[in-house]
From TrEMBL:
The keyword Protease applies. SUPFAM superfamilies: alpha/beta-Hydrolases, Peptidase/esterase 'gauge' domain. It comes from the Bacteria. It holds the Pfam family Peptidase_S9_N. The keyword Hydrolase applies. It is an enzyme of class 3 (hydrolase). InterPro entries: AB_hydrolase_fold (IPR029058), Pept_S9_AS (IPR002471), Pept_S9A_N (IPR023302), Peptidase_S9_cat (IPR001375), Peptidase_S9A (IPR002470), Prolyl_oligopep/macrocyclase (IPR051167). Residues 476-684 form the Peptidase S9 prolyl oligopeptidase catalytic domain. This is prolyl oligopeptidase. It catalyses: Hydrolysis of Pro-|-Xaa >> Ala-|-Xaa in oligopeptides. Residues 7-414 form the Peptidase S9A N-terminal domain. Belongs to the peptidase S9A family. Keywords: Hydrolase, Protease, Serine protease.
Length: 685
């Protein structure tokens, strides 16, 4: 079948000389989304995609499976608790409060704020007494969060909007009269291309103008820093952390707010300049609990005296485990023998153990519903004998489980509200060997009927920033497998499944390990008869879009179809767009000769070669994406359309008014249906 001709994309003779190396960039003009030429090209690509879209054959089933809804882990404040829930017919989750008598009220409903569905709830934080709620919303996918405060009892707005609060923590002081938060400097105070950066920590008093906010921290530090801030439950201890971009390390300070004014806290160094990530919990017993990967790739819990918090004083309470990554902990102290609950992921599967709080001795484990993923463990801030945690697996929509340390029992506290019939699937975990001999794990979800023979298969991966790919309920995965396909998720290096060393084995100059792990996963699926190269599709988004971009240029013969979503693909210029300047601590910088060599060695846009029969490829990008600029996919799409010698299509799905993060359910259904339909068509499902 002869494909439709592609829209004309002018090729420029643009060549940069970097570190004495010529770097060609024929489609640089596509970096400007506002130029008439770019707009015309995007319009033509949209028409081409629409013509070849076909029937969204998975749409109704994906929508049906998403009617499960969702439910979030509760946050307790005195007698009240707060949680999120999405019912079967809702586009977005709603944030609720439950009074001590059980009365439930909606506090923040994105659809009530904006019936178009374009407004998303980015973050929430009740104050320490549960009387005020801070929440952050953004519109159209731009993630530029605006902060509001509401009175919990009445729902009345107390304050806001306060803009420039993207990714801001809210650290309430007792009484709810003030909080610390993070806000960017005004655009008038920074260069035009740096408006996404330059964060500072401020103290804000509720009811006063933000013009009166006091800058607490961040002046003179790196423009790409992100800051964390929190205040202990009793209001005594302030904790401030600084990450340079997404670097897997942080500097950390504490201040005793009873010994210095809240407007000028005297910060004491906990760790500075260390190649480690640490976070603090101030226990009700007077001890300081430290979650750290310092000298422990898989993390450990230490204890110290808050008055002498420096890392030199830390002593192990829960040592590093040789196989499991320590992810979370919670203190239950309203018991004759207080305990520490410790969350772990063992080869991407979650578990919780119980330890004596004083000694760290393991005294039991928390029963969990199955082999899946556990969300954050929460307890009552004032202490108690109960804990709550989220649980999901490949066939279980999100649930909230309650653990009672007095009885040792786990019970279902809240289920996702929608009743759906989940298909019967089988999940297995396999170990395969990568190019350099490293063992890598992969989850394989397949139909339960055990019919032999290769099947159309989707291989998914991410492999970056220490993020772990763990089991979870997915309408797309279940729809694909129910239709007769196989879905595989590889736990590549660069992720966090095996700890920080595993992450670093896929960073900087080690990035090729990630791609080699992915190719080896594909080869394993073919060698074991799960699929064939002609039936194998690959999918990834963001850093995972970079992964599949590298895969299709390095091994085009290995894959039949590719879905590349919100990707990084021009690795020479990525730092100049979106939040790219915060990622050179993961990838390296083209300004540095060594980093330039790494990046050019695998940059997908620069690896496209004319006359190669590339796989069928669908780029899905989001016009309002302020994290990863859609220019990456635009340029790569033009390059592939020019270069490929295959009749298999290279298409672009360019979506407006959404961004990199949260979106409405109906938008999710449409995107998932389009991608699965494309993959099915080109893998033979």
């Amino acid at each position: 079948m002869t494909r439709e001709p592609y829209p004309t994309a002018r090729r420029e003779n643009t060549v940069d000389i970097l570190h004495e190396t010529p770097v060609s960039d024929p489609y640089r003009w596509l970096e400007d989304p506002n130029s008439p030429e770019t707009k015309g090209w995007l319009l033509a690509q949209g028409e081409l995609f629409s013509e070849g879209r076909g029937t969204q054959r998975f749409k109704s089933r994906i929508a049906e499976l998403l009617r499960s809804g969702s439910v979030g882990t509760p946050a307790w404040r005195g007698g009240r608790h707060f949680f999120s829930r999405r019912t079967p017919d809702q586009e977005h989750a709603v944030y609720y409060v439950v009074e001590p008598d059980g009365t439930e009220r909606a506090l923040v409903d994105p659809m009530e704020i904006d019936p178009s569905g374009l407004t998303t709830l980015d973050a929430v934080q009740p104050d320490k007494e549960g009387r005020l709620l801070a929440y952050q919303i953004s519109v159209g996918g731009d993630e530029e969060s605006v902060l509001y405060i509401v009175d919990v009892a009445t729902g009345a707005r107390v304050e806001g909007p306060i803009d420039r609060c993207r990714y801001s923590p809210i650290a309430w002081l007792p009484g709810g009269a003030a909080f610390y938060y993070v806000r960017r400097l005004p655009s008038t105070e920074v260069p035009e291309n740096e408006t996404q950066f330059h964060r500072r920590v401020y103290l804000h008093r509720v009811g006063t103008s933000t013009e009166e906010d006091v800058m607490i921290f961040g002046q003179g530090l790196k423009m790409t820093n992100y800051y964390g801030v929190s205040v202990s439950r009793d209001g005594r201890w302030l904790q401030v952390s600084a990450h340079e971009g997404t670097a897997p390390r942080n500097d950390l300070w504490v201040a005793d707010l009873t010994a210095s004014p809240i407007e000028q806290p005297e910060l004491t160094v906990v760790q500075e300049g260390l190649d480690a990530q640490s976070g603090l919990v101030f226990g009700r017993d007077g001890r300081l609990y430290v979650h750290t990967d310092l000298n422990a790739s898989r993390a450990r819990v230490c204890v110290a005296d808050p008055a002498e918090p420096g890392f030199e004083t830390w002593r192990d309470l829960i040592p590093e485990d040789p196989e499991a990554v320590l992810s979370d902990f919670a203190i239950l102290d309203d018991l004759e023998r207080p305990v520490l609950l410790v969350g772990w992921t063992r080869h991407a599967i979650s578990e919780i153990t119980v330890h004596d709080l004083a000694t760290g001795e393991r005294v039991g484990e928390v029963p969990t519903p199955g082999l899946g993923t556990i969300g954050g463990i929460s307890e009552r801030p004032e202490g108690g004998h109960e804990a709550w945690f989220g649980y999901t697996d490949n066939t279980t929509p999100p649930t909230i489980q309650r653990y009672d340390a007095r009885t040792g029992e786990t019970t279902l506290w809240a289920a996702s509200p929608g009743a759906v019939e989940v298909p019967d699937v089988r999940t297995s975990q396999v170990v395969y060997r990568s190019k350099d001999g490293t063992d890598v794990r992969m989850l394989i979800i397949s139909p339960a009927d055990d019919t032999p023979g290769p099947r159309p298969t989707i291989l998914y991966g991410y492999g970056g920033f220490g993020l772990s790919m763990t089991p979870g309920y997915s309408a797309s995965v279940l729809s694909w497998v129910e239709a007769g396909g196989v879905y595989a998720i590889a736990n590549l290096r660069g992720g966090g499944e095996e700890g920080e060393d595993w992450h670093r084995a896929g960073m900087f100059g080690n990035k090729q390990n990630v791609f080699d792990d992915f190719h080896a996963a594909a080869e394993h699926l073919i060698a074991t008869g799960v699929t064939t190269a002609g039936q194998l599709g690959i999918s990834g988004g963001s850093n995972g879009g970079l992964l599949v971009g590298a895969a299709l240029t390095q091994r085009p013969e290995l894959y039949a179809a590719v879905v590349c979503s919100a990707p990084l693909l021009d690795m020479i210029r990525y730092e100049q767009f979106g939040l790219g300047a915060t990622w050179n601590v993961e990838y390296g910088s083209a300004e540095d000769a060594e980093g330039f060599g790494w990046l050019l060695g695998y940059s997908p846009y620069h690896a496209v070669k004319e006359g190669v029969p590339y796989p069928a490829t669908l780029f899905t990008v989001f016009q309002s994406d302020t994290r990863v600029h859609p220019m990456h996919a635009w340029k790569m799409c033009a390059a592939l359309q020019h270069a490929t010698s295959s009749d298999r299509p290279v298409l672009l799905r360019n979506e407006a008014e959404v961004g990199h993060g949260a979106r409405s359910v109906s938008r999710t259904v449409d995107l998932s249906a389009d991608t699965l339909t494309f993959l099915a068509r080109h893998t033979g499902l």
